[in-house]
Amino acid sequence: MIDLLGYEFMQRALLAALFTGLAAPVIGTYLVQRRLSLMGDGIGHIAVTGVAIGLLTGWSPTWTAVLVAALGAMLLEVIRERGNTSGDLALALLFYGGLAGGVLITGLAGQSGARLQQYLFGSLTTISVADVWFTMALAVVVLALGLGLRPQLFAIAQDRDFAVVAGLRVQAYNMLVAVLAAVTVTIAMRTVGLLLVSALMVVPVAASQQLARSFRGTLLLAMAFGATAGVGGLLVSAELSFHATVAPGPAIVLVALAGFVLAWPTGALLRRRAEARRTGEDALVDDAVAP
Q: 0.85 cut: is pTM over it?
């Protein structure tokens, strides 16, 4: 394992996994708060069309995926805000239309399914230096906006009516979250793949909710879970690769799920202890005021 970490491709993969693991749960936290946990999946499917357009035109599939995913995310917000279509149905439209369009355009481009598969399930160990810089730059943007605008984005996600009364531009902030979710999907495209990206956005958040008692704590702990899953999953896949062919993307998702499995009983135990402590304190107060 030590020798493997000395290779440049492994160092690039570690950097990409770390930054992806930090950025994905930030936007995932707001999506979970708004009950849009599957939005990452919908955007991931529409990004398949963006990748296919890149393969067809000869442009960078990464950049075309960013553009198409952002347009799809904004369209989803417009449908939800102004259309008669529910959020779930709009997501379904993105699911089916994006994936079908991507497969169709890939065939028109004369590319095989194997070419598209590295974007569907990730190809972390083959990531280039340019892709690493691209991932790091976009991750920094997501982190800066997701953390810097935390009060406004939390207010909108928690209570839309309060946000409107407070004078916040709700539609603009919702559109910003949608675009950042599209950017996050593109960041994670080479790490865990478009079909698994939602797991890295949602599972660390679900795990942190078991332990944290505030939105800020949930956000920061989700970032820690995400970074641990990204780096840990890559190392697990590297270790297992000596015995079998193990892709980093699924390994990262499974490590994230393992974190949730460990956090759930721990959180339940902490909640029971806190409840017992409060019950004991209430009993002491009752005894103190009793005649």
A: no
